[in-house]
Amino acid sequence: MMRACGLLTARKEPVPLKSIEVELEVRDHVATVVSTLNYENKEDKPLEAVFIFPLPGDAAVCHFSAEIGQTQIVAKVKEKQKAREEYDDALSSGQQAFLLEESDQSPDIFSLSVGSLPPGESASIRLEYVTELAVQADDGLRFCLPAVLNPRYQPQGSEGAGVQVTSVPASLVPYSLSFSARVSSPRPISKVESNCSLDPLQYLNTDQTQATVKLAAGHKFDRDVELLIYYKDAHQPTAVVEAGQASAEPGCLMGDSVVMVSLYPEFPQSVMSSLASCGEFVFLMDRSRSMSNTRNSSARDTLLLLLKSLPMGCYFNIYSFGSRYEHIFPKSVEYSQQTMEEALKTVEQMEANLGGTEILQPLKHIYSQPCIPSQPRQLFVFTDGEVGNTKEVIDLVKKNSDSHRCFSFGIGEGASSALINGMAKEGGGHAQFITGTDRMQAKAMQSLRFALQPVVVDISVTWDLPKEVSVTVLSPPITALFQGQRSLIYAQLTGQVGAASSEAAEGCVTLKYSLAGHPSENQLHFSLRPAEDTGLTVHKLGAQTLIRSLEEGEDRGWQDTKVKEKVVQLSVQSGISSSLTAFIAVFNNNGEAIQGPLLHKNISKHGEFLKARTKTFTHNSEDQNYGTFYVVTCRIIIIRSSFCFIFGFSAAVPEQQTRDPLLQLVSLQEATGKWLLDPALPTALGKTNEEVEKSKPANKDIWATILALIWLHGLKMDSKNEWDLLAMKAASWLRAQNGSKKYESAKVLFNTG
């Protein structure tokens, strides 16, 4: 029987949260989000409600205010324990109070306590945060408004059960959502897409650099709201200088100017034309109960593509985990036809039947395995992110960051952005999120391409500024660079920045690094003139970056009291929440205490709530010859129409088969990259044996491989990012067999001239 889990009262009446209004303002790469939560106490007694909701793990919460009737109060940031005591004292004396704090277990979970709301009274809570927008594989910028806070699995024997939450069907969510967005950028806005229905994009000017969009009417808040924003010339590096706060003291972070530099490193083509042919690839797949149905099926298909795309000469292993963990091989093995087939047989049998989500133990086991000489370790982690010990997992990845790169994938609605982004950041890799109708395969293959890129070393950033301006970098050192991927740097500019900008002075930032033994550098010259009307967004994100760096540097132990004091001081001065602070607002009600016993409720965003908190408010605390494939593939591309005509294919999607035709064809490929001319191949191509074999040359394997490549380029160009690496292997194998001459006969057969 499904319990309502705090969404309904003992009388089966709705919870007091009536509606949520969200306004999003996107400025180029960053977003400001304003959420208004409207409450109403329909009880006949004063009410205390605890509202648990998710935010992006790297969000900087910078404003919290409450309005009751005609009275409004803006909350202040205070040290967390002091804020809790002030909240408890206010409730004890019958005053209205509001407390907003970050979870002790994960920075992407916040709890909002609404205390002593009088009978029949309404309250409006305004919450504001700023966040960076992640760059996707297709250069889109992703914004996600989480609707789901999935149950966070607590490993056996772990502490901190205070974030236990329970799911509730979307049909029971008793509040509504309105959502609107305004987008502006120096570059034209190409389009805005979403997993939810949107009203048409409205441009606000002729050059299309400003636009608005909102959710279509009738939206049910039953899934994350995801926006993908596309700009023209998205890879252009930029710098935004923001003037300090006039009321703040010069020399402090909020009083000085802050610059945000967005870099897109462009690696030399001579280096990028070859991909690594070595490496130890370790795949860690979530098989907990929450990964059941389509998630698990998609994970199996993704592992098939990954295994088929690995280069010869590498090593690999596959781990899966739930309440316990399993591995296919005792240790990583060399990639061959035999080991690939053995792994795939096990993958085909994988089900989401391993219980809970204990990711820490398999990670410890993987890191305990000695690294293989000359085989850089690349770890791929796939999970729906429903774990309760997020910080402990991230700390473990960070501790082992010198021995591997970590590529993480958040699967489904509610995946913890703090976990997924944190693992990739500390592991020097890349994070991906798979939601709604996203195909896991495409995003996994993009990360594999990143993993095959040479490791960038000796990364440094230098600044060239006017003599009256000094720089203090707020961001941690850059530890990972990938072709075409953005790197953001925040820095505090102290001195006469205003005077320098009046003379149109410039600054210059230089990114230097070494790639495959080749020293490289990228430079960006920028004006020191402050941007207008930025709302201190860059300052807030810079403060958040520095706060997170200090928190992570202390490994959450806080033995260094000076660092702890600096975090609290920076949090209070900037108005940005941290793990050590909280927002607190207290109404004095003109000295009149609210009468009646206090009724306690637990509420959640999309059906989650905090169970452990009580009325007393206690807390539980191309060496692979990949470069030779280009001639072959270019020739294949031009024969699409002839291929479709001769073999009776149309450019339209073929009739549905029991299995995805692409995966059916991929499953037949050998580890070396070739296909065999056996009875299964014509079936995968949708043809008979006679049609496939009537014009074959003497070498059947070459003929089969050519047919497979032609089929891919003829009918599956829309999913090329999923199969291009395995096609590269096939083309390289053809060249090694001197298959290009035999390929000419195929051109004659397909009448391509």
Automatic annotation (TrEMBL):
<feature type="domain" description="VWFA">
    <location>
        <begin position="280"/>
        <end position="455"/>
    </location>
</feature>
<dbReference type="Pfam" id="PF13768">
    <property type="entry name" value="VWA_3"/>
</dbReference>
<dbReference type="Pfam" id="PF08487">
    <property type="entry name" value="VIT"/>
</dbReference>
<dbReference type="InterPro" id="IPR002035">
    <property type="entry name" value="VWF_A"/>
</dbReference>
<dbReference type="InterPro" id="IPR036465">
    <property type="entry name" value="vWFA_dom_sf"/>
</dbReference>
<protein>
    <recommendedName>
        <fullName>VIT domain-containing protein</fullName>
    </recommendedName>
</protein>
<dbReference type="InterPro" id="IPR013694">
    <property type="entry name" value="VIT"/>
</dbReference>
<feature type="domain" description="VIT">
    <location>
        <begin position="1"/>
        <end position="131"/>
    </location>
</feature>
